C-alpha cells in the first residue's frame, strides 16, 4: 500500500507538472517506477480516489515524448490487453498510445503499420467506433486517421474485397444509426487527409454512403448529421476536382436535397448548408452555375409555398439567400432571376411585424449588398444593381407606416426606422447601410436624412462592443463614400462632412461626445474709433459689449466672461509694425474666483495683467485695427470606455507581475530542492537556505492572493506543493521520519 501511495504521489506530480516534460524527466520518472510497475498498478483495485485517472494522465504524458514512444513497441501485448479492457479510460489511453506510436516513429524502427496489423489492433479500433462511448470512439477515429497517413496503410483501411469485415461499407451496414453516423464521419475525416487518401475513398465508393443514408432513413438526427458531413465534404470540392474532374457533378448531388420523401424542414436545412458552401469565393470553379440557379429557384419556391408558416424555416431560407449572395456571382444570381429571389429579403428586411424575420433579412441584405466583400467588389452588374434599387424603392412605396411622399423620401424613412429599433436590429442596419452606401443612390438617400447621420455619428448610441464597431464601420464607410462623391463640394453638405469626419476621428469606443467651442464673432466700437473684431470661442460664455480704450481694458473685459480661456491673443490685422513679445510667467491670483496663470507670454507694452485659467497670451500692436481671439477650454470628462480599457490594462500588467513573481519564486524553490535531493552528501543545515526561499515564495503567493491575482485555493495548493516537495527531500535524506500511526490515520481519513 505504501508503494502504491508513493506511485500515486509521483504520478500526480508528473501528470500535473505545469511545464512540458522532456525525455530526461521521463527517464527519471521511469527509473523510479518502470512501466511494468505502472501497468500492474492499473490492474489493481485501490481505494485511492482518482488513482486510475492519475496514472492514465501520467502515461499519456510519458508516451507523448520521443523516449516514451520508443518504448511502446516493447509492450505491444500490454497495449493489446489495454484495448480489451473493460475501463473506458484505459481504452482511450490505449488508442492514444497507438496514435503516439504513429506520430513519433523512428525511421530505423519496425513499421508501426506492421505492428498494428500483426497484433490485431485495427479491428479493435473499428469495434470501438461502433460500440463504445463518444470519448473512446473519438480516440479510435483519430488513431485511424493517423494510421491513414502512412502509404502502406491504404490496403488495410481500404481493402479491395468489399466483403471484408473491416471494409467501412460493411461496417456501416451492420451498425446502428448512431454508429453509421460515426462511420460516415470517419470517412469524411479520411477524405480530408490527402489527395492520395481522398482518391482511395472515392474509388472505394464510400462517398455514396452519404447519399444512400439520406435516402434510406427518416431519422431527423441522422439526416441533420449527414447534411453537416455533406458540408465538410463540400469544402473539399476543389481537391476532388483535381482528382478526377468530377467535382461539378458531385457538387450537383451535394446541393440537390429536394427529395420527395424528405421533410420540408430538412430541405430548408439542406438549402442553408448549401448556402454556406456557396458563400466561398472559389466554389464556382467546381460547381455548375445552373446548379446554383436551381438551388436559388428552389429557395424562392419554398418562400412562396403556403407551407412556409414556420418562422424558423423562413429565417433559414432567408439566411441561405444571404449566404449565396455574399459572393459577387451569387449576388448576381440572386438579383437577376425573374422575378428576383432577393425580393423576399428586401420585403422582410423592413417588415416590423415579424422581428425575427426582419433581423435575418437585414443580415441577408447586407450580405447581398456586399458588406463582407472587398470594397472594389461591392457593386455587381448593371441589371442586378437596378433590380436592387427598384426592390428597395418599391418596398418603400408600399409601406403603410410611412407618410405618403416621394419614393426616395420613403426609402429614407425605411432606413431610419431600422436604426430606431433595438440594438440587434441597429447592428444589422449598420451592416446594411455600410454596403448600400457604396451606391450613389444609397449615399444620396443616407445623406438626405439628417436623423440617420445623427444616429450613425453619435458615439453614445451603442453600449456593446460589436455594435460600437458596426456603427463606426458604417460611419467610416459613409465618410469614405462622401469624400469620393460630388457631395463633398456641396456647401449644404459641409456640416454633414464635418460631423462624419469628427466621428471617424473619435473612434468606435468613445462613450461620450463633446463638441469643441464654436466661434462667435462680434464687432464693437472702441470709443468712437475704428472697430475691433472681437472673436470669442466659448461654451455658453456671456459676451459683453465693453469699452476697450486700452489693451488692458480689453483684457479685463475678456476676463469678465464666464468661460474659462485656454488661449487668449490680441493681434493686429497687419503685422508690419508688430513687436516681438517677451515671455514671462505669472503666478498671480485675483479674487476668490481667479485661478493661477501658467506660461502667459505678453508684450512689454502691457503694464497690467489679468489672471486667466491657463493658456497663452500674445500682443501684436497695430494702430489701426486689432483682433482679440479667446479660445475656450471646456472641461471634458474622461471617456468612460477608454478609461475602463486603461484600467483593465493597468490591472492586467499588475496581476501579471504578481503571478510572474510567484512563479519565479516557486521555480527557485523547486530547483533548489531538486539539487539538494540529488546531492549525495547533503547536510541538514542546507535545508535552511531552502526554507528562506520557501518563505519568499509563500510571501509572493500571499501577495498575489491578496490582490486577487490568484485564487485563494490556487495559492493554498501551490504552498502545499512546496511543503510536500520539501518534506519529500527530508524523507529522502533521512532528516525526517514520518509518524507511521499519523500517516495511517491520515490515509484512512482521506479514504473515508
List the helices and strands and how they pair.
Elements lengths: L1 H14 L7 H10 L2 H9 L7 H13 L2 H5 L5 H8 L4 H16 L8 H7 L2 H11 L2 H15 L5 H4 L10 H6 L3 H15 L3 H9 L4 H9 L3 H15 L2 H8 L2 H9 L8 H15 L10 H16 L6 H14 L3 H9 L5 H8 L5 H15 L12 H17 L8 H13 L3 H14 L3 H8 L2 H8 L7 H19 L10 H13 L12 E7 L5 E7 L13 H9 L5 E8 L9 E2 L17 E2 L13 E4 L6 E7 L7 H39 L8 H20 L5 H22 L6 H12 L1
Parallel strand pairs: 2-7, 3-6
Antiparallel strand pairs: 1-2, 3-7, 4-5
Pfam family, one: Ribosomal_S20p
Keywords: Ribonucleoprotein, Ribosomal protein, RNA-binding, rRNA-binding
InterPro entries: ARM-like, ARM-type_fold, PSMD5, Ribosomal_bS20, Ribosomal_bS20_sf
**Chain-averaged pLDDT:** 75
Strand content: under 5%
Give the radius of gyration.
39 Å
Uncertain stretches of 5 or more adjacent residues: 237-262, 401-408, 511-554, 556-636
End-to-end gap: 16 Å
State the total count of DSSP E strands.
Answer: 7
Number of helices: 36
- Shape call: flat
Lateral arrangement of strands in the main beta sheet = 1-2-7-3-6
Give the helix/strand class.
Answer: mainly alpha
Report the biggest beta sheet as strand number plus sense, adding barrel if it closes.
5 strands, mixed
Considering DSSP H and I runs of 4 or more, what fraction of the residues is helical? 55-70%
Keywords: Ribonucleoprotein, Ribosomal protein, RNA-binding, rRNA-binding
Pfam families: Proteasom_PSMB, Ribosomal_S20p
Protein name: 30S ribosomal protein S20, chloroplastic
Amino acid at each position: 500500500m505504501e508503494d502504491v501511495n508513493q506511485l500515486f504521489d509521483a504520478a500526480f506530480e508528473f501528470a500535473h507538472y505545469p511545464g512540458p516534460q522532456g525525455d530526461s524527466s521521463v527517464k527519471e520518472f521511469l527509473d523510479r517506477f518502470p512501466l511494468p510497475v505502472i501497468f500492474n498498478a492499473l490492474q489493481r483495485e485501490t481505494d485511492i480516489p482518482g488513482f486510475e485517472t492519475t496514472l492514465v494522465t501520467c502515461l499519456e504524458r510519458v508516451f507523448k515524448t520521443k523516449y516514451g514512444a520508443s518504448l511502446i513497441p516493447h509492450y505491444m501485448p500490454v497495449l493489446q490487453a489495454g484495448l480489451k479492457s473493460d475501463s473506458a479510460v484505459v481504452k482511450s489511453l490505449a488508442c492514444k498510445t497507438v496514435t503516439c506510436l504513429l506520430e513519433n516513429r523512428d525511421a530505423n524502427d519496425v513499421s508501426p503499420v506492421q505492428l498494428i496489423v500483426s497484433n490485431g489492433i485495427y479491428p479493435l479500433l473499428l469495434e470501438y467506433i461502433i460500440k463504445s462511448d463518444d470519448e473512446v470512439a473519438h480516440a479510435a477515429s483519430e488513431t485511424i486517421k493517423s494510421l491513414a497517413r502512412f502509404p502502406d496503410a491504404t490496403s488495410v483501411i481500404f481493402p479491395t474485397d468489399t466483403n471484408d469485415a473491416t471494409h467501412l461499407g460493411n461496417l456501416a451496414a451492420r451498425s446502428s444509426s448512431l454508429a453509421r453516423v460515426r462511420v460516415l464521419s470517419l470517412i469524411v475525416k479520411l477524405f480530408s487527409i490527402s489527395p492520395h487518401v481522398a482518391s482511395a475513398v472515392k474509388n472505394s465508393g464510400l462517398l455514396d454512403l452519404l447519399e444512400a443514408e439520406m435516402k434510406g432513413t427518416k431519422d431527423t438526427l441522422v439526416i441533420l448529421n449527414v447534411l453537416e458531413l455533406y458540408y465538410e465534404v463540400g469544402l473539399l470540392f476543389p481537391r476532388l476536382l483535381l482528382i478526377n474532374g468530377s467535382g461539378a457533378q458531385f457538387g450537383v448531388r451535394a446541393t440537390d436535397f429536394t427529395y420527395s420523401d424528405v421533410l420540408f424542414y430538412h430541405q430548408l436545412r439542406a438549402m442553408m448548408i448549401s448556402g454556406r458552401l456557396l458563400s466561398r469565393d472559389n466554389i464556382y470553379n467546381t460547381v455548375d452555375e445552373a446548379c446554383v440557379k436551381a438551388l436559388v429557384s428552389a429557395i424562392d419556391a419554398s418562400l412562396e409555398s403556403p407551407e412556409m408558416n414556420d418562422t424558423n424555416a423562413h429565417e433559414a431560407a432567408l439566411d441561405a439567400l444571404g449566404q449565396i449572395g455574399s459572393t459577387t456571382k451569387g449576388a448576381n444570381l440572386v438579383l437577376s432571376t425573374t422575378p428576383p429571389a432577393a425580393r423576399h429579403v428586401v420585403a422582410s428586411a423592413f417588415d416590423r411585424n415579424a422581428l425575427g424575420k426582419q433581423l435575418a433579412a437585414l443580415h441577408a441584405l447586407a450580405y447581398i449588398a456586399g458588406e463582407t466583400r472587398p470594397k472594389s467588389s461591392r457593386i455587381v452588374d448593371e441589371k442586378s444593381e437596378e433590380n436592387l434599387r427598384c426592390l428597395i424603392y418599391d418596398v418603400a412605396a408600399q409601406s403603410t407606416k410611412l407618410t405618403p411622399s416621394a419614393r426616395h423620401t420613403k426609402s429614407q424613412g425605411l432606413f431610419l426606422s431600422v436604426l430606431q429599433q433595438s440594438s440587434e436590429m441597429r447592428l444589422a442596419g449598420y451592416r446594411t447601410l455600410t454596403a448600400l452606401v457604396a451606391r450613389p443612390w444609397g449615399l444620396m438617400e443616407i445623406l438626405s436624412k439628417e436623423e440617420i447621420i445623427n444616429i450613425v455619428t453619435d458615439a453614445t448610441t451603442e453600449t456593446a462592443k460589436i455594435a460600437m464597431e458596426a456603427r463606426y464601420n458604417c460611419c467610416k464607410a459613409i465618410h469614405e463614400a462622401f469624400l469620393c462623391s460630388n457631395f463633398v463640394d456641396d456647401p449644404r453638405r459641409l456640416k454633414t462632412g464635418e460631423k462624419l469626419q469628427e466621428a471617424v476621428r473619435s473612434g468606435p469606443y468613445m462613450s461620450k461626445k463633446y463638441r469643441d467651442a464654436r466661434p462667435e464673432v462680434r464687432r464693437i466700437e472702441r470709443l468712437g474709433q475704428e472697430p475691433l473684431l472681437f472673436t470669442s470661442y466659448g461654451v455658453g460664455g456671456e459676451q459683453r459689449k465693453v469699452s476697450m480704450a486700452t489693451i488692458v481694458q480689453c483684457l479685463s473685459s475678456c476676463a469678465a466672461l464666464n468661460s474659462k480661456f485656454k488661449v487668449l491673443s490680441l493681434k493686429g490685422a497687419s503685422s508690419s509694425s508688430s513687436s516681438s513679445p517677451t515671455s514671462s510667467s505669472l503666478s498671480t491670483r485675483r479674487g476668490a474666483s481667479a485661478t493661477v496663470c501658467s506660461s502667459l507670454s505678453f508684450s512689454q507694452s502691457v503694464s497690467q495683467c489679468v489672471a486667466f485659467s491657463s493658456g497663452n497670451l500674445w500682443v501684436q500692436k497695430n494702430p489701426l485695427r486689432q483682433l482679440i481671439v479667446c479660445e475656450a477650454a471646456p472641461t471634458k470628462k474622461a471617456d468612460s470606455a477608454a478609461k475602463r480599457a486603461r484600467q483593465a490594462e493597468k490591472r492586467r500588467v499588475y496581476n501579471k507581475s504578481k503571478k510572474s513573481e510567484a512563479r519565479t519564486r516557486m521555480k527557485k524553490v523547486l530547483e533548489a530542492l531538486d539539487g539538494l535531493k540529488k546531492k549525495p552528501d547533503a547536510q541538514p543545515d542546507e535545508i535552511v537556505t531552502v526554507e528562506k526561499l520557501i518563505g519568499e515564495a509563500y510571501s509572493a503567493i500571499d501577495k498575489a492572493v491578496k490582490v486577487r491575482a490568484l485564487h485563494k485555493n490556487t495559492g493554498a495548493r501551490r504552498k502545499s506543493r512546496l511543503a510536500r516537495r520539501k518534506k519529500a527531500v527530508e524523507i529522502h535524506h533521512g532528516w525526517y521520519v514520518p509518524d507511521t500511526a499519523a500517516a495511517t490515520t491520515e490515509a484512512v481519513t482521506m479514504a473515508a
